[in-house]
Records
---
Amino acid sequence: MTNVYKKIAENRSSMSKSHLKIADYILENQNIVPFFTVGKLAKMVGVGDATVFRFATKLGYSGITNCNSICKAQSKLN
């Protein structure tokens, strides 16, 4: 299983400003973000719901829910 946070960090250099805001927020709040909905994450970061969805799909996930599920599973392993 690929570490989501590592994947985010490795892809920062190719991200748009909006995606960087999402990436930074996720990396700084790893304990709570996996439990956020798309709407909650978008609101906390100050971007639109579609931007959060595009962020997750750009990283290779089917959406933020898929990404969050992997984050939750990884946190249980640590």
---
Amino acid sequence: MQTLRDAVLKADYAQVRATVSAMRASGAEEPDGAVFEHLSSAGLILLRDGQSGLAVDVFALMAERFPDHPDGYLHLEEAYRRAGRDDQVAEARRLATEVDPVVVAIATR
């Protein structure tokens, strides 16, 4: 996870892409709170830096690794919106709502 964080902070987007691909392929790492936080913060930094396509990749991985947590889907919804992928925005919201409708209602007021 340190590699992803370092790549994001250095704006080394090729390394971000490679790290996300490697994490997705391995699937070996057990999801935990630290992994969740690293993915969340990396994706948010990418959104802030205008890298919405990479943010989509990071948040999609977050949603895959933590399917029972609505934040991955909510962040993915915003990344899709910023990437102009409007056809996928509603699906991300639907998945977040399916996981936890209360959190989604609070987060989207």
---
Amino acid sequence: MKNLEYKGYTGSIEYSKEDDLLFGKVLGVRGLISYEGKTGNELENDFKEAIVTYLSDCNEKEIAPEKPFKGSFNVRVSAELHQKAALLAKEEKMSLNSFVAESIRERIFKESRVKIIPKQQNQ
């Protein structure tokens, strides 16, 4: 297992040799939600507890919890790469956004050898 998953949130798994401790943080959110444990079970339990506490705090404060990995992000590339991608997208009769999404999907498939993530309607 490379990450922890719970209620739509993903958490990292790291190890501190100095502290002889497993620790991690929730990925894809701006705020810091961290957790720790001496064992894998302790780490997973603390991760789940951190998510439950975060959601409970948001509910008490009447604010919407941050949704991880919203499906939108900015990418900075060189002007040359931007131009080449835009021209290839145009040749394929697709938007630059769809071209980038498809390129990411292909790379993930190639690297992980898993089922390609389905396309979304609004790309």
